[in-house]
Amino acid sequence: MKTKLSLIALCLSVNSFAGEIDLTVNNSGTIKYGESTCSDNCKIDTTDNDVVFKPSSDSSDKFSNWSGQMCDFGNGAKFSQSAKHISNAGGGAKTLQVLDINNDDAPDLFGISLFSGTVIQSINMGNGEFETKLAVDGLAYPAALDSFDWNSDGYDDLLVSDFAASTIKVYLNNGSGELQFSEDIKIPGVKPYAFSVYKLKDSQSPNLVISSFSADTRGDLFALVKSIHEEKTAIYEKVGDQYQELKVLSERAGITLDTYLDDEEKLNIVSAEIVSKEVVIYSESKNYALEVVDASRAPYGAGFADIDKDGLQDIVTAHYGPFSLRVGFAEEKNKFLPMQQIAEGEDGLTAVAIDDFDADGLQDIATGEFNSKKFEYYSMNTYVGCGFKKGASATITANFSESASSTSPAPTTTSDSSNSDSGSGGSFPVWLSFFAGLFFVRRLK
C-alpha cells in the first residue's frame, strides 16, 4: 500500500510536459509572444528559447494580473494604489536604507528622522508589517544612509552621513540585531551630504561616492537648496588610513546617490540633483558623461534595482515637488522606458528603497513623506510582461477586466504565489495528475 501511495504522489509531482507553457487568456484579452498571439488557450514551446508574454497594445488597458505559477522574470510591473505603513518619523521622513539587521532574510529598513537627529530601525515581521525602535541618536543633521559589510564579517553594516559634522559614521552590525558605533570617516575639505559605498573585487577597501557641498540648514528644504554652494560629486578611494579623491564627476549637488557595478565591474551612479531639477546617471562605461533620466521641480530620491528580475537595473525616483514616485524600466543597460508614475503620495516625497517587503516574491517600493512624517511602501501587484526561461514548464493565466482603467497604476489583485510552483519547475494540471495516478494504481493491482 505504501508503494502504491508513493507512486501516486510521484505522479502528482512529475512534469510530463517539460519545456511547455500552458497559457490561458481570460475575458477577451490578447497576449503577444514573439511574432505570435494568444487569445484563449495556447501551448508554447520553451525548449529552445526564453519566452515573454505581453498584453497586446489594444488590450493592455484591460490587463489585470497573472495567476497560476510565478513568472521567472517580468517585463514591467504594476503596483498597488494604496500605501502600507512602515513607521512614523517625527523629525521629518528623509532617507531609507534596506538592511537585514536580524539576519532572518526579511528586509528591514532604516530611516532618517531629520530634525530629531535620529535613525529609526523598522524590523520586518515577515509579513510586510514592521515594528520600529530607535537605532541611532545624537546626530547633528543626518543626511544619507547606506549599507555595506564594512568589516567583512558577513553582516551588512550601516553608514550615516552627518552633514553638519562633515562626517560619515560607521555602525557595525553584530549579527544579533544590534548596531555598534565603529568609526568616523572625515575627508579634509569634504562635507558629505549624499554618498554611496561600493567595492571592486580586487580592492582591499571599499570606495566612496560622495556629493559634498556647503549649505544653510537652519531653514526648510528650499532654503537649503537656494543656499547650496561649493558643490562637488566625486569618487574617493582609501590610501593608507585616509580617503583621497580619485575622480571628480561633476560640480553639482546630489541630494541622494545610489550605485551598482555591472557585469564588467564598471561603476554606475544615479544622482537626484535638486538644484538642477534633474535625476542623472554617471556611467564608467561612458566615461562618466552626465545623462538625464528624469526631471521635476524638486527631485529628491533615486535608486537602482532590478525590479522585474530581467537582469537589467531599473531606476526609481521620488520627487518632493510635484509629489511623485516613479519607476523607469530598463530596455538595456542605463536605457529606460519613459518614467511611469506609481504614486503621488500626500506630501513631499523623499526616500527610495526597493525590496520584497511583504514576502510575495515581487519587489515593492518604499518612500518617505517628509512633512507627513511617515515612511510607507507600495506593493508590486503583478508583472506586466511575464517571462519564462528556456526549458521552463508552467501553467499560467492572463487575467483581463473590462472595467480596468488604462490610467490605473496598478491592478486590484495579485497572483497567489503561495499555492503555486516555481515558473521553471511546473507540474501536471491537477485533473491530469489524478487520472495518471489512477492508471498506476491499476497497474499495481
Tags for this model:
globular, about 10% helix, disordered N terminus, mainly beta, five-stranded antiparallel β-sheet, four-stranded mixed β-sheet, about 450 residues, single chain
Could you tell me how far the N terminus lies from the C terminus, measured between alpha carbons in angstroms?
10 Å
For the largest beta-sheet, the strand count, sense and barrel status come to: 5 strands, antiparallel
Strands, count: 35
The best one-word shape is globular
Detail the topology: elements first, then pairings:
Elements: H1 2-13, E1 20-25, E2 31-33, E3 36-38, E4 41-45, E5 51-55, E6 63-68, E7 73-79, E8 84-88, E9 93-98, E10 109-113, E11 118-124, E12 130-136, E13 142-148, E14 157-162, E15 167-173, E16 179-185, E17 192-198, E18 207-214, H2 221-227, E19 229-239, E20 242-250, E21 256-261, E22 267-273, E23 278-283, E24 290-295, E25 298-305, E26 314-321, E27 324-328, E28 330-332, E29 335-336, E30 340-343, E31 353-355, E32 364-369, E33 374-378, E34 380-388, E35 394-400, H3 430-444
Structure write-up:
The protein has 445 residues and is mainly beta. The protein contains three helices and 35 strands. The strands form nine sheets. A five-stranded antiparallel sheet has the order 3-2-5-34-7, with no helix packed on it. Strands 4-1-35-6 form a four-stranded mixed sheet, with no helix packed on it. A four-stranded antiparallel sheet has the order 8-33-32-31, with no helix packed on it. A hairpin with a 2-residue loop joins strand 28 and strand 29. Helix 1 runs antiparallel to helix 3. The chain is globular. The N terminus and C terminus are likely disordered.
